[in-house]
User: Which sequence fits this backbone?
């Protein structure tokens, strides 16, 4: 398993120390020569430690973005643009309807709602890896320093991020609390817990979810979300198309999302583009 | 416009009925006339706009963005207004912005312009708006808000806002028009309740609930109820006073122009409730004969000759100006019978009351009606019931005949709209004709949310072909369809049209070659 040290640490924590046969850590920007191919990792800006892979072979350069975003995020290394000939890009939000707003604006809507409804608690559905920490950081950066309550599934990774120097402020276990301590506070839980028995302990919660899918109101409604927060750790349409243009690649392979639209966009600009359909990742896979 | 956009967003997203009522009441309180009245009309769908059609709007968007990307996005989002509001290109920084008008001025701005100028006008407004405001303006301009609020809930919010009861508002509602300034003045305590002319306006109908066979018959006393056939036409309200003669559909739409033969024959002064049917000598023809007339704005001469309209009357709301709605059904029925005797020779006849002893008796009658006459079922009404707007639980029931069932094969699937956008939820089903499968009907309902997820997954993994938004699937999933009746239809490839088809069961277990054939389905045609 070749990955950044942080990715390896996160994998071991989530899936166990022996989840891969062997691990080979590779720091960002260090060239690894493997026969005729030179491999280099560059920050993808998706979550802490996430990488793009640059492969150089006989003067041609291919870059596999993996999941990425270009917007600044204080819980991850900033995305670096890597010039290349062949770009393999993700396409989670590969439709022009996805134009993510500034996350600061979303957090200020959240905090306004917390203030306007002090008798309720706000529970935010956010994936335990990356999204939860980003949302907490954004809340802290907006000046909200009250304790934030965590679902058990969020604790380990938050502790790991804190150990890596990401200051998440005062975090407490939601489990230990009685009902009376929740009103006026923010709780963070995995999206699956929002409609589970777990959330019944919360008094009349405002269900929030932090995700790029929240752009679409009917999606938010389908998931029973009352306050959608459009905060994404994937590139939106403009980031995807800007990155393709800026990479200088003449060939684009599109995968993991809405391949058709991005392929169409590339071709209409004279780029060679193909969809890479992969089994089991058809639509709306996690974010 | 910003406040209205926020209201719509709250209405869409908040699951709580009380929170919706609260949000509307707050909006009425903090928004001046005529904006609040126009917003109210938009929510209750009483705003009629004629200057902008969905097609023009789609074109407007496709002029701004790559048409293919637009169509892919629309297919994905499932809602035209939302697609346009999200995909609309942001104007460059520093580009000139116009202030957005209020709700009422916005509507006037659209309706007062020559048609040719409307699109450009709207485009300029969209350029100056946030996505949420764009969404609100497009929803307003096209009329279909679809924000999960019924007209009744909006009236409940009015009642809450003004401290009046809902029934008082329901009774006058259909005599009022946007922007409802008189109504708001009354609710604000600045004026008397608006007066309306009962002989000229629609009065909200009383509706029935399906009977629950397993529970209701045990707890209801057959002696308290009267039974009538459930007629297979459309429910109408006849409102006439000697000068004005109007026919309203169940939702209050005036359909008089489509039925001039019937309207002209309304003699006297009353408000009657009944079933609109077509046929000679009060012999109703099948529903699809009526359908031919419903599909046209004004009737063809041949239709007037071959498909004359009449109404089978079952209730009386007003006799002259006298409001009968608070009398028990038995008393209203007496008044109705008396009135009909005095107005014979027109296009009205009485819906017969069926004698029966106990519920078993009635069950036999229902079966006979279905098998011998092809009747749709029965209506069961409490003789003491007052005429109440809406669908109160208890006084009136419908007891439909058993549905017809056939096994069909899924052929095509398409994504749904609104709540079900992103799910493949609209299906076309087929049956065998020799060695080929021909489409017999479409169904969008009858499954649980879990089944919908399974169907959606099945469609995605068994797609063989894509035609725009439509996916063709492997012809191997058998689905049992239920429907009310089958009719000849030259427009369908199978030659048969099903009435109200819905999914009854998904037969994951059944091989496709055991699905029904055109011969077996043809035998069910009424």
Assistant:
């Amino acid at each position: 398993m070749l990955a950044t040290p942080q990715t390896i640490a996160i994998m071991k924590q989530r899936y166990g120390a022996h989840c891969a046969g062997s691990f080979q850590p590779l720091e960002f920007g260090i060239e690894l020569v493997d026969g005729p191919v030179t491999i280099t990792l560059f920050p993808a800006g998706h979550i802490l430690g996430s990488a793009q892979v640059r492969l150089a072979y006989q003067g041609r350069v291919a870059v596999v973005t993996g999941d990425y975003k270009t917007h600044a995020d204080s819980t991850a290394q900033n995305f670096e643009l890597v010039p290349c000939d062949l770009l393999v890009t993700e396409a989670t939000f590969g439709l022009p309807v996805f134009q993510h707003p500034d996350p600061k604006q979303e957090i200020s809507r959240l905090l306004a709602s917390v203030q306007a409804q002090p008798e309720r608690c706000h529970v935010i559905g956010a994936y335990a890896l990356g999204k939860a920490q980003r949302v907490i950081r954004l809340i802290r950066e907006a000046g909200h320093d009250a304790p934030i309550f965590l679902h058990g599934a969020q604790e380990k990774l938050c502790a790991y991020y804190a150990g890596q120097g990401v200051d998440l402020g005062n975090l407490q276990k939601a489990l230990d609390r009685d009902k009376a301590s929740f009103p006026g506070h923010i709780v963070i839980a995995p999206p699956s817990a929002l409609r589970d028995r777990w959330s019944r302990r919360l008094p009349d919660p405002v269900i929030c979810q932090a995700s790029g899918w929240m752009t679409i109101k009917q999606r938010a409604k389908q998931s029973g979300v009352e306050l959608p927060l459009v905060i994404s750790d994937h590139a939106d349409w403009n980031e995807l198309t800007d990155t393709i243009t800026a990479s200088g690649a003449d060939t684009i392979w599109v995968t993991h999302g809405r391949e058709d639209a991005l392929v169409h966009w590339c071709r209409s600009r004279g780029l060679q583009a193909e969809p890479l359909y992969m089994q089991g990742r058809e639509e709306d896979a996690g974010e | 416009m910003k406040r209205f956009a926020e209201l719509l967003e709250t209405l869409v997203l908040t699951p709580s009925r009380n929170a919706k009522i609260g949000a509307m009441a707050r909006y009425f309180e903090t928004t001046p006339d005529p904006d609040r009245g126009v917003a109210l009309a938009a929510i209750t769908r009483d705003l009629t706009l004629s200057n902008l059609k969905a097609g023009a709007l789609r074109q407007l968007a496709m002029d701004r963005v790559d048409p293919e990307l637009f169509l892919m996005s629309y297919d994905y989002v499932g809602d035209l207004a939302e697609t346009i509001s999200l995909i609309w290109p942001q104007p460059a920084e520093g580009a000139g912005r116009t202030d957005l008008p209020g709700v009422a001025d916005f509507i006037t701005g659209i309706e007062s312009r020559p048609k040719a100028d409307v699109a450009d006008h709207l485009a300029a407004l969209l350029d100056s708006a946030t996505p949420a405001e764009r969404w609100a303006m497009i929803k307003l301009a096209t009329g279909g808000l679809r924000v999960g609020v019924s007209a009744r809930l909006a009236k409940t919010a009015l009642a809450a806002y003004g401290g009046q009861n809902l029934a008082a508002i329901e009774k006058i509602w259909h005599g009022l028009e946007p922007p409802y300034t008189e109504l708001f003045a009354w609710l604000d305590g600045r004026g008397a309740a608006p007066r309306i002319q009962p002989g000229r306006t629609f009065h909200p109908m009383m509706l029935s609930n399906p009977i629950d066979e397993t529970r209701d018959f045990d707890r209801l006393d057959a002696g308290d109820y009267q039974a009538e056939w459930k007629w297979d036409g459309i429910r109408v309200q006849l409102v006439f006073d000697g000068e004005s003669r109007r026919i309203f559909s169940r939702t209050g739409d005036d359909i008089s122009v489509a039925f001039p033969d019937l309207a002209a024959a309304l003699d006297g002064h009353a408000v009657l409730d009944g079933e609109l049917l077509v046929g000679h000598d009060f012999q109703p023809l099948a529903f699809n004969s009526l359908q031919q007339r419903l599909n046209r704005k004004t009737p063809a001469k041949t239709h007037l000759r071959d498909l004359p309209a009449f109404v089978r009357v079952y209730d009386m709301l007003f006799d002259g100006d006298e409001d009968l709605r608070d009398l028990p059904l038995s008393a209203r029925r007496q008044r109705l019978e008396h009135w009909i005797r005095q107005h014979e020779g027109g296009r009205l006849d009485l819906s017969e009351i069926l004698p029966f002893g106990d519920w078993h008796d009635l069950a036999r009658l229902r079966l006979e009606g279905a098998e011998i006459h092809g009747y749709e079922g029965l209506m069961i009404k409490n003789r003491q019931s007052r005429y109440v707007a809406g669908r109160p639980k208890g006084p009136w029931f419908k007891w439909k005949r058993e549905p017809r069932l056939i096994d069909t094969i899924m052929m095509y699937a398409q994504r749904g709209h609104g709540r079900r956008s992103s799910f493949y939820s609209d299906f076309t089903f087929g049956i065998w004709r020799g060695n080929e499968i021909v489409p017999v009907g479409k169904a969008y309902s009858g499954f649980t949310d879990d089944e919908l997820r399974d169907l959606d997954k099945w469609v995605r993994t068994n797609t063989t072909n894509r035609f725009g938004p439509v996916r063709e699937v492997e012809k191997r999933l058998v689905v049992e369809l239920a429907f009310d009746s089958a009719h000849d239809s030259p427009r369908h490839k199978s030659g048969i049209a099903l009435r109200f088809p819905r999914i009854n069961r998904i037969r994951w277990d059944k091989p496709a070659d055991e699905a029904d054939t055109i011969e077996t389905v043809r035998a069910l045609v009424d």
